[in-house]
Amino acid sequence: MKITAGLGSVDDYLPYVEAGADEFFCGYVPYEWMKNGGLTYPLNRREVLYYNVQIGSESEMEILAALVRRKKKIVTVALNGLFYAPHQYPMIEALIKRLFHMGFSSFIVGDMALLVFLKKNLTVPAEIHVSGEMSESNHIMIDEMRSLGAKRIIFHRKVTPQEMKSCIDYQKMQYPKQPLEYEAFALNELCHFTGAFCSSLHCDELAPACRLPYRLIRTEQADILNYKRQPDQADLENAGEDFVLGQSGCGLCALWQLRDAGITHIKLVSRGNYTADTIEDIRQLKNALNILEKSTCEKDYKKQMKSRLFANDCSHNCYYITEN
After folding, report:
1. Mean of the per-residue pLDDT values for the chain?
2. Which residues pair with 182 in a beta bridge?
3. The pTM is what?
4. What CATH topology corresponds to 2-309?
């Protein structure tokens, strides 16, 4: 399995390559998009421009393309907004063509209508990866994605390894000479919502819905508007802590099952994270894959992985529920 890491800055490309990442995905919002619709119609699922989440300009994309040619570690451009206005589809098609000729050959798509539009109109042989925001959950849906030109399926966060295996086995049986690539989440940004139905913003200026603090209380309806939340020390429990592997979401225990299911790529969600933390994430994920290769069984893998990667205990913030 290959490591796919999120890239929020051109400056991070070489350090992430040296850390062991096999490929990357990034966001880019061109000036003409901002002039036309701004962040009201987000081009990808990071509705922000002011920190290291998006590649900042076309000149930076050209620099990144040169680095890709030099290091041979591909970068896939995320165009995974949930929906767009009708007049924006030709704009996206033109952007894909421009980036393709620049040196970017693969793109993540999260809108079914965009997928259909590109199938009918795109004239360059770009590779389409179906975003987890499309909420793929069964072989019928994957069949449809295949017919529309998808080359990689990114399973969303709520698909279990067993469900992935069922979908992949069916595809292998039905299309033995036309294999797809399959990607699953492995580290960071676990969310209890399903991305395909989430219209929350994903930026530091406004917290996404899954990050809003809340508490279940019993109160009379008339008292709700007067309720004032009391300060809670738990709100600050993560502030100032040292790096913790998989603190916001961890799927390392499931790597054995993901490999057996047929997953070819594992996703490290890292756009907007501190560079040093992402480098450590990549290194530890690489270590986990090395342990996986040398382990004789799933139980042995988990034992070795936990003893070597976690100094005390893991985050218990599991992407996939597996037996101990």
Report:
1. 89
2. 153
3. 0.89
4. TIM Barrel (3.20.20)
